[in-house]
Amino acid sequence: MREDANSERRRPIGPAKRPATSDDDDDDDDDDDGLTVEERAANRELDRRRQEAGDDQDDDSDEDGSVDLGPEPGDGQGGSGQMPISDSVDLRDHSKTVSALAVDHAGARVATGGFDYDVKLWDFGGMTSAFRPFKSWEPAGTYWVHDLAWSASGDQLLVASGTPQPKLFDRDGNLLSTFNKGDIYIRDMKNTKGHVAEVTSCAWQPHHPGTFATASADSSLRLWSVEDPTKQQKVIVVRSKERGTRTKVTSMTFSHDSRTIAAGCFDGALHVWGSNTSAARPDKSIENAHERNNETSSVVFSRDNHTLATRGGDDTVKLWDLRSFRRPLATRDNLPNDYGQTSVIFSLDERTILTGTSVVRAQGSEELMRANEAGEAPRVVKDGAIEVMSRDDLSPIQRISVGKGNSVVRLHWASKINQLLASTSSGGVSVFYDPQISSRGALLCVGKRAKTQRVVDSYAEMPIITPLAGDAVSRGQGTSQAAKKRRLEKMRQDSQASKMPERPMAGPGKGGRIGAAATQHVVQSIWTGNTRTEDPREALLKYADKEEGKDKQWTGAWSKTQPKAIYAQDDDDDGSNGQDQERQGNE
Questions:
Q1: What's phi and psi for 550, nearest 5 deg?
Q2: Residue 326 falls within a domain, yes or no?
Q3: Domain with 197 in it
Q4: Helix (H, G, I), strand (E, B), or coil: what is residue 532?
Q5: How many whole angstroms separate alpha carbon 231 and alpha carbon 208?
């Protein structure tokens, strides 16, 4: 019996053993701690008091109105697979479709751009529950904003708009650089120093700070350095087999290891280049990856650097493997896409793929006639949403609604804060989060109320300023009645100070004073002056010096041969005076 007890004591405790919660269990577990019964009771009493003190502190912190910020941010390299969509808030300040969306690496600042030509900056740390941007501006005038990208450090924002020139701004929206525009009269795109058509997409190169790439409708991709905005570092010219010349590059991206560049084109082709190759020809190509004459709106790599997902304007999402690039691994159709910027992204754990869908409206001549008569768009048959698909076969998993009549355009899953952002066609950005698994981000703003403006009901605490305080003493203000009386008596003895000024005369003057009429001011405004007293000779001599300068301007060639100017005689004096003198001499 003793040996059984000793063996029972020596048996190790498994890791899955539930901790004791009752006093009886505590007594059983503490049999071998070497303490007496009284000492164990004292320890339990001390633990109970500490627990009560901790509960009181928690209650006090809750009463102070502190906001639960969620768990601490993780490294963002994986996730539990749970979607942070239990709650959502809207960032709404654009008047048209939000076509560009970017979140910095820390998840603290959001940049949005839209069809209303504006770029807006949102700061989670500085916003209140009103959710208003702190900066808004037009980076390229009346041109749509196609794409935005934060640098890895989050201190620079790259803007791609409907112009051939990408622009670089700092974290607060101040312009840093405007990159060069190419010569539109040069046919070969390799010989131009910049794009010659609108920029459609942009992305920073991973592991290479200060280097980014842009795609354009001029059938080229260009790598730039932030240090030299006058010329690109590398040019990749895309040639279309359909027309044999140019095609619009609608989207591009880098792989996570920065070794591969992928781009989708308007002719339906999908091209892949090595970032260290000459890029004269693509390393891999699929000519009919999507339907022709449709914009491939998004291309994205997974973290394995060989799996690629594309979003086409043909209402499909396709999954590719660069190791077997002949046909897609999986295809999902019937995903409406009316925007050339619709995103496709991988989830944090990369088990699912997400994309946005557009609103489906009623078709047919009757519906179009009804809509035209009513002056409105055709009725909505199906709302846009966020479609969640399995990575294995792109089978549907979940459909997340963003509001009635809204199309989902851009998507971004911020890894640091574990929150999903989706831009819509109504001019808003929906931020989805879960207080249990999300951190920071929108949680910082939800419980923060806007500061109320102070209304001043009383001016008792405000300083009183008396203008002309120095003259107040001379007027007798601030003195006693006796002092004021003595001052007035002294003034009466002064003949100048006690003399009443004469009143202005009305009517004709008398006693050496000039009278004033009621219409005097009217006459003075009409009478501008008397030129009869002006000497005409003096008036003409004012222009003598000016005329002399003009004569030298036109007669400078004869200044030496004819220093004194000789003018022609008047027509009345030509020969008439001489003939009269001869006649008088003959007589």
A1: -70, -40
A2: yes
A3: 94-353+440-446
A4: helix
A5: 18
Residue 291 belongs to some domain of the structure? yes
Tallying the residues shown for the chain, one arrives at 587
* Phi, psi (deg, nearest 5) at residue 549: -65, -35
Any domain includes 150 = yes
Give the C-alpha separation, 196 to 165, whole Å.
8
* CATH code of 269's domain: 2.130.10.10
Q: How far is it, in rounded angstroms, from Cα 390 to Cα 398?
A: 10
Distance CA 587, CA 584 (A): 5
Total domains, the chain: 1
DSSP 3-state helix, strand, coil percentages of the chain (rounded to 5)?
Answer: 20, 25, 50
- Is residue 421 domain-resident? no
Q: Is 73 left (phi over 0), alpha (psi -120 to 50) or beta?
A: beta
Token code pair at residue 218:
């001029």
Contact 132, 84 (CB under 8 A): no
pTM: 0.65
Q: How far apart are CA 4 and CA 578, in angstroms?
A: 165
Is residue 306 a contact partner of residue 319, using CB atoms and an 8 Å limit?
no
Find, among 389, 420, 401, the residue nearest to 359 by Cα.
401
Contact between 216 and 249 under an 8 Å Cβ cutoff? The reply is yes
| Cα 151 from Cα 157, distance rounded (Å) | 6
β-strand 385-390 against 352-356: which pairing, if any? antiparallel
Task: pLDDT tens for the chain, 587 residues: list them.
Answer: 444 444 444 444 333 434 444 444 444 444 545 556 666 676 677 677 666 655 554 444 444 444 455 555 454 455 556 899 999 999 999 999 999 999 999 999 999 999 999 999 999 999 988 899 999 999 999 999 999 999 999 999 999 999 999 999 999 999 999 999 999 999 889 999 999 999 999 999 999 999 999 999 999 999 999 999 999 999 999 988 876 678 999 999 999 999 999 999 999 999 999 988 777 889 999 998 999 989 999 999 999 999 999 999 999 999 999 999 989 999 999 999 999 999 999 999 999 999 999 999 887 777 777 777 777 778 888 899 999 999 999 999 999 999 888 999 999 999 999 999 999 999 999 999 999 999 999 999 887 776 665 655 555 566 666 665 555 556 555 667 888 888 888 887 777 777 777 777 777 777 777 777 777 777 777 766 667 778 888 888 777 666 555 556 666 777 777 777 677 776 655 555 555 555 544 54
Give the CA-trace dihedral at 63, 65, 66, 68, to 10 degrees.
90
